[in-house]
Amino acid sequence: MHHSPAADTAASAPLSSPRASDSALHAAYDTALLDLDGVVYTGGEAVPHAVDALAAARESGLRLAYVTNNAARTPQTVAAHLTQLGVPAAADEIITSAQAVARLIAEQVPRGARVLAVGADGLRVALEERGLTVVETADEEPAAVVQGYGGPSMEWGRLIEAAIAVQRGVPWYASNTDLTIPSGRGIAPGNGSAVEVVRIATRWMRTPPEPQVAGKPLPPMHRESILRTGARRPLVVGDRLDTDIEGAHAGRVDSLLVLTGVTDATRLLAARPVHRPTYVARDLRGLLAAQPDVTGDAGTGFSCRGWTAHAGADRLTLEGDGEPLDGLRALCGAAWSAAGDAECRLDAGNVLTRLGL
User: Could you list the active site residues?
Assistant: First the structure.
């Protein structure tokens, strides 16, 4: 049975296979909520096919919004970067975890309240836009302390101020808790690592505090995206299972996983229910295409176009021929159905090698 996104978004039952869409995704949804790194660009360069695919999707009437957990850059800076890459974007099309956490704080403290901000310009600007007063030290009697990614030049003294404020009982917030971020030179510590520093410095307390976190995959980030875009039928597009896809599940909306970033076919097959995307595509050209049906069951196998996949006692098998991604979709059906609510641990190495994935 083919999926009707407008009528049934992100059903609560675990996905047993990727779903189908008779319509091209750009026509089935009104807004694409796109992750950036690994989806639109990697290492400062546009992902292959991203520029043309996004231009075609926008021209067809799909609204594009870019949703990032990186709280360091302002929306204006992000929009300028995208435009330079050939993806025209305005500042109001950028949603950051800094904006989400600023809204969260503003709802819980008086207008104009002092906030000790440990981060970069993106966090400061977002707080000021909410009418909050940014301060530098724990001695300025802040009503809240918030951490956002501060970039490579962030001083250790900023973390000391945050830790002291939290020890004094000041409510603690974080834009996001991603432990790592990709960089052109390798994997670097992310804001979650800085949050861990403050957590370690306060764990001696009788009741160790925990921050309120806004970023993906948590609800405040999805709420910020919907409030800023007015989306009625959003599609989350991402490359990470634990932020983008899990965030879509938390917001009960559909998702498209693209295989241009950190998630490879092996991780996709192993995904537990909250990490299973509605659709799978090689890259952003998937926005311009319908999505094929995966049919069958554990007894007969799961079929997608020319492929049929089975789950055995210890491994996945695949028969047939055709587009490799359809083979992967069939394998998802076999793997996810066999795993149920758990993570699939069946070996898929040989079949993925055959598919070139």
Answer: 35, 37
